[in-house]
Amino acid sequence: MKKLFVVIAVATMGLLYSCGGGNSQKDQEGKASVDEFSEIAKQIKNGHNTRNLLDYTGTYTGKMPTASGEGMLVSITLSDSAYVKNTEYVNKKNSKLEEKGKYIWNAADNTITLDGIKDAPNQYLVGENTLTQLDMEGNKITGEMADLYILRK
């Protein structure tokens, strides 16, 4: 009987130890899984943006409104890090202007700024086959004429 009692006591202690130790190990494994998932989620969150999801390079064109006159024809060609912007006022002779330079992405990688352009809007929201001109403060233009500020590929 004494042997049976010792065997039961040892088995119970082993069982209790394995349950307690197992939970601790499972907790550690669960924590590791959560930590690993969080790290993967950060990488995915940081990796999915306009800059690396869209084929944004190419030429975008459109006719944009002006304060006076019939508007201006605008063409922006983007390569990997450089731009060429051509503008021409409609029905105005000798109004062609070509500007070249580099562009930079904002922190969210969804808007570019044409470096070197100071006295005119120089920020564009990059979309699926579109560049949307932003106002001088970098805000999206709203209202009835908002669609007139979109250049298309």
SSE succession: HHEEEEEEEE
Shape: globular
Largest sheet: 8 strands, antiparallel
Number of strands: 8
Distance between the termini: 89 Å
What is the CA-based Rg, rounded? 31 Å
The CATH class of the largest domain is identified as Mainly Beta
Question: What's the mean pLDDT score?
Answer: 79
| CATH-derived topology of the largest domain | Lipocalin
Q: Can you put this structure into words, describing what you see?
A:
This protein has 153 residues and is of the alpha+beta class. The protein folds into 2 domains: 2-47; 55-152, Beta Barrel (Lipocalin), CATH 2.40.128.640. The chain is 33% helix and 31% strand. The longest helix is centred in the N-terminal third of the chain and has 46 residues, at 2-47. The model is unreliable at 1-17 and 37-44 (pLDDT under 50).
Structure in a nutshell:
This protein has 153 residues and is an alpha+beta fold. The chain is built from two helices and eight strands.
Keyphrases for this structure?
153 residues, alpha+beta, Lipocalin, 2 domains, eight-stranded antiparallel beta sheet, 2 helices, 8 strands, 33% helix, globular, disordered N terminus
